[in-house]
Specification:
Helix 9 packs antiparallel against helix 10. The longest helix has about 70 residues. By secondary structure, the chain is mostly helical. It starts with 8 loop residues before the first helix and ends in a 5-residue tail after the last helix. About 80% of the residues lie in helices and about 0% in strands. Among the domains are: about 50 residues, no CATH class; about 180 residues, Methane Monooxygenase Hydroxylase, Chain G, domain 1 (Up-down Bundle); about 220 residues, MetI-like fold.
């Protein structure tokens, strides 16, 4: 029976997708590491502009000019890496640096020559392609015309009101002009645009008159010699900056040119001329001013008529697309404004309600005082009534005066309370306060009503003491009542405002519902009308673009103008990108830009080379003497380094910017060729290489490049040492736990497991203090040493002990017993029997330890301070700054850093599978 072979398509597709996803980061890493532009997130994963420079900078770093200046300075002053070197060593370093400087200058000069000759050769040939460019542009123009005509046929025709309404919407955002497409729009409108046409004609006349009188004024100046003649002529010729067929700025011209120059100096000239000549010049000057001012007025009339006509055309919506569409548009516009009003009202209402709550809280604070004083006064009334009922009359002037003041205060307080209570009448949320105030008022009223009786008994001791109680109550109330009166007034205002806002909000919400109903009822009709309007707008824009497709392109400038005016139409209605469609012209213009940038950068670079050579020669003639003087104890600084650094910074920044722009443009020229550009690809690549090399010669290279190999070596040393220590210690420690039985064995294993559960960073403070102490006793185990780092890393072996112990458990005891029967000791059985059999797990532990330590960052960053002692993981982060990341060097460093791990893995790979599987096999 034949076996059916099935193809699992879904499974294969999933596997392919997983492989692509897994491998993509590696592909990105490799492609980014060899890109010149370092465009890590470019839409193009692969670039044609590749280089191995990032790898050279890391593995074999070359001193650039910027770096040489710094190194020369450090060597001269014996600072940094040159501290402690002898005079002869410093002189040798300086000599080698000066020789390297000369070499770089010579190479820079060659790069400049290559750039100039390469770009000049291409430019000469590209200029001869202008006829071919114009021919291809005219071919595309014919295709554009056919494209537009076909689209217009698809759209169909529109009634005059529809076109007029669409043109009106265009005019709302279009600046009037006597050139371009604006006259086309007014022609489409016909009689509807009569006000604009008349205003534009008036402006044209004033524009021509202004230029005419300008020329007459210039003519009148012929043959005249005066102090500011050139300034006046320049000012007259600059009129074109202030007036054109598309705009006029009379006020600016009057302020800058007329008052400061033309009128000021020509009046002086007129005063020194014969009457006839002065009259001619004065007339020309006056006519110029009047015509310019009239042109400004005419332009204002143009703008006004444009606004009026567009406003009038906006009312054609109903006639053009139906009354439903007009109602829809009108309702939508009103709704938009209404929603803004509702939002503002809601904000105002929220503020008012918040203020109301705050004021009500303040009332709550006042209530306890009111209640307390009411109780005092209420408790005072019965004794006073008893005195009054007995008809006791005891008058005393002092007590009477005191009581009179107290009762006057009672009367005043009652009036204030009644006023406040009257304001609160009928208000919600303040019933408790109103009730307490009414109660207090009634108590105060008793004293007011019984004033005469109390005054007659003012000499009575109880009345006198009661007056003191009244004064205390009035004193307490005096702190509350004024604040309460003010707060109540504010409360009334805020409450009223909140109620008005609520009422207005309810009204607007109701109107909004009506508008939404109107919009909903006419939405379908409006949608169809909107489609018609969009098509009408498209038809108008396409027809305006066809003004250019009907004319033959005769020059490069006309071709540029053609592309400029068709770009928006092609992109908006045909989804065609102009840079792609007109690549034949865009390539030409991009090359011109690249050539300009390269030439400008080369001029600056020549100046930089010349200046640096002069300064270097001057420095070379005295630098050795200065080194000798510093060794003799004379602290002298050279100004030459500051001058060199200043010149380098000021000029190379400009060179670098221009060369970078030129390189980007050349990249596009190579990657996006056109019909005539294929033959220039090789020359462009050579020019690009020269630009890149010139940049590398001068760019200020980071110090990280010169330490990277050292960092890599440090990581390899640390990782190998920790792996060796970890394997040795763990192998020895795991053996007793596997083969021996002793008290605390299980607890020891558990303790190892528990220790492994906590991250090492938790003990960092303790480890830091330990290393600080050890460094004072054993220097190579202290802080900022690789020995101290190895010591800290070696502490994480608990997991490895468990792993190796599990593997030992799978090895039969009979093998050791047989060896011991043959005369081997326990240690010999361990080293000659167990260890050879455990090589797979030892290899696995070594690999895992090496990889973990090689990539560890945090602990190494804390312990190591000196840059030359950093590990690979710490150094790698130096390519990532606060504001940007150098992706080229970063990815190249990442790939180089993977090499030691790969090599270590490949050396021990034979043991990995066996080590991971045999450790779990039971005999």
């Amino acid at each position: 029976m034949a076996v059916e072979r099935r193809i699992y398509w879904l499974r294969h597709l999933v596997l392919i997708a997983v492989v692509v996803i897994v491998l993509f980061p590696m592909v990105w890493l490799v492609s980014t590491s060899i890109r010149r532009d370092q465009a890590a997130f470019s839409s193009n994963l692969f670039s044609s502009r590749v280089t191995l420079q990032h790898y050279r900078n890391l593995l074999l770093p070359e001193r650039s000019v910027g770096r040489l200046i710094l190194d020369l300075q450090s060597a001269t002053y014996a600072t940094g890496d040159y501290r402690g070197k002898s005079q002869e060593e410093l002189k040798k370093n300086v000599e080698s640096y000066l020789a390297k400087f000369d070499s770089l200058m010579e190479e820079s000069q060659r790069m400049v020559s290559n750039i100039e000759s390469g770009m000049a050769e291409i430019e000469k040939d590209v200029v001869s392609k202008e006829k071919q460019i114009l021919l291809e542009m005219n071919e595309i123009r014919i295709k554009d015309k056919e494209l537009f005509e076909n689209r217009l046929k698809q759209i169909g025709t529109f009634e005059e009101p529809q076109m007029a309404y669409a043109v009106g919407r265009i005019l709302e955002t279009t600046v009037p002009s006597l050139e371009g497409v604006y006259p086309f729009y007014t022609d489409l409108l016909g009689e509807r645009a009569a006000p604009i046409t008349e205003a534009m004609e008036g402006y044209r006349q004033m524009y021509e008159s202004t230029l005419k009188y300008r020329d007459e004024t210039l003519k009148a100046l012929v043959g005249l010699e005066f102090e500011n003649r050139e300034e006046v002529i320049t000012s007259l010729n600059s009129i074109d900056k202030y007036i054109s067929l598309s705009s006029v700025d009379y006020s600016e011209w009057r302020r800058v040119e007329w008052l400061r120059v033309i009128n000021r100096y020509l009046r002086e000239v007129e005063s020194s001329l014969p009457e006839m000549e002065a009259s001619v010049l004065n007339q020309a000057r006056t006519n110029l001013y009047e015509s310019f001012r009239a042109a400004g007025d005419s332009w204002e009339a143009v703008l006004t008529s444009n606004g009026e006509v567009s406003q009038e055309l906006s009312s054609l919506a109903g006639e053009a697309f139906g009354s439903g569409y007009y109602k829809y548009i009108e309702a939508s516009e009103v709704l938009s404004g209404m929603e803004n009003s509702i939002a503002e009202l809601k904000k105002t209402l929220a503020v008012s309600e918040s203020a109301v709550l705050e004021l009500e809280d303040s009332f709550e604070i006042a209530i306890p005082t009111v209640i307390s004083e009411t109780r005092k006064l209420s408790a005072l009334i019965p004794p006073f009534e008893l005195v009054a009922s007995k008809g006791i009359e005891s008058s005393d002037p002092v007590s009477g005066a005191k009581l009179t003041g107290s009762l006057d205060g009672v009367l005043s307080a009652r009036e204030t309370i009644n006023l406040v209570n009257g304001q609160l009448a009928g208000m919600k949320n303040v019933e408790e306060l109103s009730s307490e105030l009414s109660d207090l008022s009634s108590k105060l009223s008793w004293f007011v009503d019984n004033r005469e009786v109390l005054m007659k008994a003012s000499g009575n001791s109880e009345i006198s003491k009661g007056a003191d109680v009244i004064n205390i109550a009035l004193s307490n109330l005096s702190r509350v009542l004024p604040v309460l009166q003010t707060s109540v007034s504010e409360y009334l205002e805020v409450s009223k405002s909140a109620e008005e806002s609520k009422s207005r909000l309810q009204t607007l919400e109701g109107e909004k519902e009506k508008l939404l109903d109107t919009i909903s009822n006419h939405e379908e009709e409006a949608r169809k009308a909107e489609e018609s309007y969009v098509h009408a707008l498209e038809a108008i824009n396409i027809r305006s673009a066809m003004l250019y497709t009907d004319r033959e392109i005769l020059s490069i400038e006309e071709a540029r103008n053609y592309v400029l005016n068709l770009t928006n139409v092609l992109n908006s209605y045909f989804n065609i990108k102009a840079p792609v469609r007109y690549r034949t012209l865009v390539w030409y213009d991009d090359f011109a830009k690249a050539d300009t940038e390269a030439r400008d950068g080369t001029v600056l670079l020549k100046e930089l080379i010349s200046s640096m050579r002069v300064m270097k020669d001057d420095l070379a003639s005295k630098i050795e003497n200065y080194i000798e003087l510093r060794f003799l104890g004379t602290s002298i600084t050279l100004d030459d380094f500051g001058k060199m650094q200043e010149t380098y910074n000021s000029l190379f920044q400009q060179v670098n910017a221009k060369y970078q722009r030129a390189s980007r443009l050349i990249s596009d020229l190579i990657e996006k060729p056109t019909s005539y550009s294929e033959s220039y690809a090789a020359e462009l690549r050579e020019a690009d290489k020269a630009l890149f090399r010139a940049n590398q010669i001068w760019v200020q290279k980071e110090s990280t490049y010169f330490y990277f190999v050292r960092w890599l070596l440090n990581s390899v040393i640390v990782a190998l040492a920790v792996a060796l220590i970890s394997v040795t210690v763990a192998a020895l420690a795991a053996y007793p736990f596997s083969r021996m039985r002793f008290p605390g064995r299980k607890q020891g294993l558990l303790a190892l497991l528990l220790v492994q559960m906590f991250p090492s960073i938790m003990f960092m403070v303790a480890l830091y203090a330990l290393l600080q102490f050890l460094g004072s006793v054993v220097p190579f185990l202290g802080l900022n040493t690789l020995g101290g780092l190895i010591f800290v890393y070696s502490g994480g072996i608990a997991f490895n002990i468990w792993l190796i112990k599990g593997y030992y458990d799978t090895i039969s005891n009979s093998l050791e017993e047989a060896a011991m029967i043959d005369g081997a000791t326990k240690f010999q059985a361990f080293t000659k029997v167990i260890l050879p059999l455990a090589r797979p797990i030892l290899a696995v532990v070594a690999i895992l330890t090496f990889m973990n330590i090689f990539n560890e960052y945090l602990i190494a960053r804390i312990i190591l301070q000196d840059m030359n002692k950093w590990t690979y993981a710490v150094g790698l982060w130096q390519f990532s700054g606060r504001f940007e990341t150098s992706w080229g060097p970063f990815t190249a460093a990442a790939l180089i850093g993977a090499v030691p791990m790969v090599i270590f893995f490949l050396v021990l790979q034979d043991y990995i599978v066996g080590g991971l599987t045999q450790g779990g096999v039971k005999e």
